[in-house]
Design a protein that fits this description.
This protein is α/β, with parallel strands linked by helices and 244 residues long. Helix content is 30%, strand content 18%. The chain is built from eight helices and nine strands. Helix 7 links the parallel strand 8 and strand 9. The chain is globular and about 65 Å long. The two termini are 33 Å apart.
Protein backbone atom coordinates (compact mmCIF):
# COMPACT_ATOMS: atom_id res chain seq x y z
CA UNK A 1 0.00 0.00 0.00
CA UNK A 2 2.89 2.37 0.74
CA UNK A 3 4.10 1.97 -2.87
CA UNK A 4 0.64 2.89 -4.18
CA UNK A 5 -0.10 -0.60 -5.48
CA UNK A 6 -3.55 -2.11 -5.24
CA UNK A 7 -3.97 -4.85 -2.67
CA UNK A 8 -7.04 -7.04 -3.09
CA UNK A 9 -7.94 -9.31 -0.19
CA UNK A 10 -10.44 -12.15 -0.61
CA UNK A 11 -11.53 -13.54 2.73
CA UNK A 12 -13.99 -16.19 3.88
CA UNK A 13 -13.70 -15.29 7.56
CA UNK A 14 -16.52 -13.92 9.68
CA UNK A 15 -15.70 -11.48 12.49
CA UNK A 16 -12.01 -12.29 12.69
CA UNK A 17 -9.42 -9.99 14.20
CA UNK A 18 -7.80 -9.85 10.75
CA UNK A 19 -10.99 -8.48 9.17
CA UNK A 20 -11.30 -5.85 11.90
CA UNK A 21 -7.72 -4.74 11.30
CA UNK A 22 -8.40 -4.44 7.56
CA UNK A 23 -11.48 -2.33 8.19
CA UNK A 24 -9.38 0.10 10.24
CA UNK A 25 -7.02 0.76 7.31
CA UNK A 26 -8.10 3.90 5.51
CA UNK A 27 -6.54 3.45 2.08
CA UNK A 28 -8.31 3.61 -1.26
CA UNK A 29 -5.85 1.09 -2.72
CA UNK A 30 -7.02 -1.62 -0.33
CA UNK A 31 -9.97 -3.63 -1.64
CA UNK A 32 -11.59 -6.25 0.60
CA UNK A 33 -14.00 -8.75 -0.91
CA UNK A 34 -16.09 -11.26 1.01
CA UNK A 35 -16.27 -14.77 -0.40
CA UNK A 36 -19.16 -17.15 0.21
CA UNK A 37 -18.72 -19.34 3.26
CA UNK A 38 -20.64 -20.99 6.04
CA UNK A 39 -19.12 -22.43 9.19
CA UNK A 40 -21.08 -24.81 11.37
CA UNK A 41 -18.04 -24.99 13.66
CA UNK A 42 -17.27 -21.28 13.94
CA UNK A 43 -16.26 -21.67 17.61
CA UNK A 44 -14.37 -24.92 17.13
CA UNK A 45 -11.64 -25.21 19.73
CA UNK A 46 -9.57 -27.74 17.78
CA UNK A 47 -9.24 -27.00 14.09
CA UNK A 48 -7.41 -30.27 13.47
CA UNK A 49 -10.47 -32.40 14.22
CA UNK A 50 -12.18 -34.34 11.44
CA UNK A 51 -15.47 -32.37 11.56
CA UNK A 52 -13.66 -29.07 11.01
CA UNK A 53 -11.62 -30.44 8.09
CA UNK A 54 -14.77 -31.90 6.48
CA UNK A 55 -16.51 -28.53 6.77
CA UNK A 56 -13.57 -26.91 4.95
CA UNK A 57 -13.88 -29.40 2.07
CA UNK A 58 -17.63 -28.88 1.89
CA UNK A 59 -17.22 -25.09 1.91
CA UNK A 60 -14.71 -25.08 -0.91
CA UNK A 61 -16.55 -27.33 -3.34
CA UNK A 62 -20.03 -26.02 -2.51
CA UNK A 63 -19.06 -22.39 -3.17
CA UNK A 64 -16.28 -22.94 -5.73
CA UNK A 65 -18.16 -21.56 -8.75
CA UNK A 66 -19.64 -18.42 -7.07
CA UNK A 67 -16.33 -17.60 -5.36
CA UNK A 68 -14.38 -18.03 -8.62
CA UNK A 69 -16.86 -15.65 -10.26
CA UNK A 70 -16.38 -13.08 -7.47
CA UNK A 71 -12.58 -13.25 -7.76
CA UNK A 72 -12.45 -13.01 -11.55
CA UNK A 73 -15.04 -10.22 -11.71
CA UNK A 74 -13.08 -8.18 -9.17
CA UNK A 75 -9.75 -8.74 -10.95
CA UNK A 76 -11.34 -7.82 -14.28
CA UNK A 77 -12.49 -4.47 -12.86
CA UNK A 78 -9.45 -3.68 -10.69
CA UNK A 79 -6.43 -4.94 -12.65
CA UNK A 80 -5.65 -3.06 -15.83
CA UNK A 81 -4.37 -4.79 -18.95
CA UNK A 82 -0.69 -3.91 -18.55
CA UNK A 83 -0.53 -4.24 -14.76
CA UNK A 84 1.28 -7.19 -13.23
CA UNK A 85 -0.77 -9.49 -11.03
CA UNK A 86 0.78 -11.26 -8.04
CA UNK A 87 -1.15 -14.10 -6.40
CA UNK A 88 -0.61 -14.97 -2.73
CA UNK A 89 -2.39 -17.90 -1.07
CA UNK A 90 -2.25 -18.13 2.72
CA UNK A 91 -4.18 -21.37 3.27
CA UNK A 92 -4.07 -24.80 1.67
CA UNK A 93 -7.51 -24.44 0.09
CA UNK A 94 -6.93 -20.95 -1.27
CA UNK A 95 -3.98 -22.12 -3.39
CA UNK A 96 -6.50 -23.87 -5.67
CA UNK A 97 -7.97 -20.52 -6.78
CA UNK A 98 -4.78 -19.82 -8.74
CA UNK A 99 -5.86 -22.35 -11.34
CA UNK A 100 -9.25 -20.70 -11.87
CA UNK A 101 -8.07 -17.11 -12.39
CA UNK A 102 -8.55 -15.91 -15.96
CA UNK A 103 -6.12 -12.96 -15.72
CA UNK A 104 -2.46 -13.72 -16.37
CA UNK A 105 -0.57 -14.15 -13.08
CA UNK A 106 2.92 -12.66 -13.10
CA UNK A 107 4.10 -14.55 -10.00
CA UNK A 108 2.36 -16.92 -7.59
CA UNK A 109 3.39 -17.38 -3.96
CA UNK A 110 2.11 -19.80 -1.31
CA UNK A 111 2.56 -19.25 2.43
CA UNK A 112 3.08 -22.76 3.85
CA UNK A 113 2.51 -23.04 7.59
CA UNK A 114 0.51 -26.24 8.02
CA UNK A 115 1.96 -29.73 8.38
CA UNK A 116 0.29 -32.34 6.17
CA UNK A 117 1.27 -35.99 6.52
CA UNK A 118 3.02 -37.45 3.48
CA UNK A 119 0.91 -40.59 4.00
CA UNK A 120 -2.21 -38.77 2.83
CA UNK A 121 -3.17 -38.92 -0.85
CA UNK A 122 -4.16 -35.24 -0.76
CA UNK A 123 -0.55 -34.35 0.13
CA UNK A 124 0.63 -35.69 -3.26
CA UNK A 125 -2.00 -33.55 -5.00
CA UNK A 126 -0.92 -30.46 -3.04
CA UNK A 127 2.75 -31.10 -3.87
CA UNK A 128 1.87 -31.41 -7.55
CA UNK A 129 -0.04 -28.13 -7.50
CA UNK A 130 2.63 -26.26 -5.48
CA UNK A 131 5.30 -27.21 -7.99
CA UNK A 132 3.40 -24.96 -10.38
CA UNK A 133 3.88 -21.99 -8.01
CA UNK A 134 6.87 -19.65 -8.30
CA UNK A 135 7.68 -19.46 -4.60
CA UNK A 136 6.77 -21.36 -1.43
CA UNK A 137 7.37 -19.42 1.79
CA UNK A 138 7.87 -21.89 4.67
CA UNK A 139 7.56 -20.70 8.27
CA UNK A 140 10.18 -23.18 9.54
CA UNK A 141 12.69 -25.79 8.41
CA UNK A 142 10.21 -28.42 9.66
CA UNK A 143 7.55 -27.20 7.23
CA UNK A 144 10.14 -26.94 4.47
CA UNK A 145 11.11 -30.60 5.03
CA UNK A 146 7.44 -31.54 4.97
CA UNK A 147 7.34 -30.30 1.36
CA UNK A 148 10.31 -32.40 0.31
CA UNK A 149 8.78 -33.06 -3.11
CA UNK A 150 8.83 -29.35 -3.98
CA UNK A 151 11.86 -28.13 -5.90
CA UNK A 152 14.30 -26.64 -3.37
CA UNK A 153 14.85 -23.58 -5.59
CA UNK A 154 11.18 -22.70 -5.10
CA UNK A 155 11.26 -22.82 -1.30
CA UNK A 156 12.34 -20.10 1.09
CA UNK A 157 12.26 -20.32 4.89
CA UNK A 158 10.94 -17.12 6.45
CA UNK A 159 10.46 -17.28 10.20
CA UNK A 160 7.32 -15.47 11.31
CA UNK A 161 7.87 -13.11 14.26
CA UNK A 162 5.22 -12.87 16.95
CA UNK A 163 4.40 -9.30 17.97
CA UNK A 164 3.41 -8.68 21.58
CA UNK A 165 2.15 -5.22 22.51
CA UNK A 166 1.09 -3.35 25.65
CA UNK A 167 3.18 -5.53 27.93
CA UNK A 168 5.60 -3.95 30.36
CA UNK A 169 8.76 -5.89 31.28
CA UNK A 170 8.66 -7.51 34.70
CA UNK A 171 11.56 -8.06 37.04
CA UNK A 172 12.72 -11.61 37.69
CA UNK A 173 11.67 -12.27 41.27
CA UNK A 174 13.14 -15.71 41.83
CA UNK A 175 10.44 -17.26 39.66
CA UNK A 176 10.41 -17.82 35.91
CA UNK A 177 7.27 -18.52 33.89
CA UNK A 178 7.46 -20.13 30.46
CA UNK A 179 4.34 -20.46 28.30
CA UNK A 180 3.39 -21.91 24.92
CA UNK A 181 0.20 -21.67 22.85
CA UNK A 182 -0.50 -24.24 20.13
CA UNK A 183 -2.48 -27.27 19.14
CA UNK A 184 -1.23 -30.08 21.36
CA UNK A 185 -0.23 -32.48 18.61
CA UNK A 186 2.96 -34.50 18.08
CA UNK A 187 4.58 -32.40 15.36
CA UNK A 188 4.39 -29.21 17.44
CA UNK A 189 7.27 -30.55 19.58
CA UNK A 190 5.66 -29.75 22.93
CA UNK A 191 7.08 -33.01 24.34
CA UNK A 192 10.63 -31.64 23.95
CA UNK A 193 9.71 -28.61 26.01
CA UNK A 194 8.03 -30.71 28.71
CA UNK A 195 10.94 -33.16 28.90
CA UNK A 196 13.36 -30.26 29.36
CA UNK A 197 11.88 -29.27 32.72
CA UNK A 198 13.64 -32.06 34.62
CA UNK A 199 17.04 -30.86 33.35
CA UNK A 200 16.64 -27.25 34.48
CA UNK A 201 18.55 -25.75 37.36
CA UNK A 202 16.22 -24.34 40.04
CA UNK A 203 13.37 -26.28 38.40
CA UNK A 204 11.20 -25.72 41.48
CA UNK A 205 11.16 -22.01 40.68
CA UNK A 206 10.36 -22.43 36.99
CA UNK A 207 6.77 -22.96 35.82
CA UNK A 208 5.63 -24.19 32.42
CA UNK A 209 2.19 -22.98 31.29
CA UNK A 210 0.75 -25.02 28.40
CA UNK A 211 -2.21 -23.57 26.47
CA UNK A 212 -4.14 -25.44 23.79
CA UNK A 213 -6.08 -28.59 23.01
CA UNK A 214 -5.25 -31.55 20.80
CA UNK A 215 -4.85 -35.29 20.47
CA UNK A 216 -1.80 -35.46 22.80
CA UNK A 217 -3.19 -33.34 25.65
CA UNK A 218 -4.44 -36.21 27.84
CA UNK A 219 -1.26 -38.20 27.17
CA UNK A 220 0.97 -35.30 28.26
CA UNK A 221 -1.15 -34.65 31.35
CA UNK A 222 -0.58 -38.23 32.51
CA UNK A 223 3.12 -38.28 31.62
CA UNK A 224 4.06 -34.91 33.10
CA UNK A 225 2.30 -34.75 36.46
CA UNK A 226 4.24 -31.96 38.12
CA UNK A 227 3.01 -28.99 40.09
CA UNK A 228 5.16 -26.67 37.98
CA UNK A 229 3.75 -27.90 34.65
CA UNK A 230 0.23 -26.52 34.24
CA UNK A 231 -2.12 -27.50 31.41
CA UNK A 232 -4.93 -25.01 30.69
CA UNK A 233 -6.56 -26.50 27.60
CA UNK A 234 -8.21 -24.11 25.15
CA UNK A 235 -8.57 -20.53 26.41
CA UNK A 236 -9.90 -17.34 24.83
CA UNK A 237 -7.71 -14.46 23.65
CA UNK A 238 -8.90 -12.31 26.57
CA UNK A 239 -7.96 -15.03 29.09
CA UNK A 240 -4.43 -15.29 27.63
CA UNK A 241 -4.03 -11.52 27.53
CA UNK A 242 -4.96 -11.31 31.21
CA UNK A 243 -2.60 -14.17 31.99
CA UNK A 244 0.28 -12.33 30.29
Amino acid sequence: LETNNNVIVFDQGFNSKFRKELNEINNSNLIVKKLFNFNLLINSENKFNLAYQCSKFLNFFLFLIPNVMIINNCLYNCVKKNERLFFLSCTTFSLLFKFFIVKKIHKSVHYAHQYISNKLIIKKIIDFLLNKFDLIICVSSFISDNYENIFSRKKKILYTPQKVINLEPKKFNKELNVFTISNIIKWKGISYLLNSHKNLKNKDKIKFHIFGKGSELDNYKKKFKKKNIIFYGFKSDSFIENFL
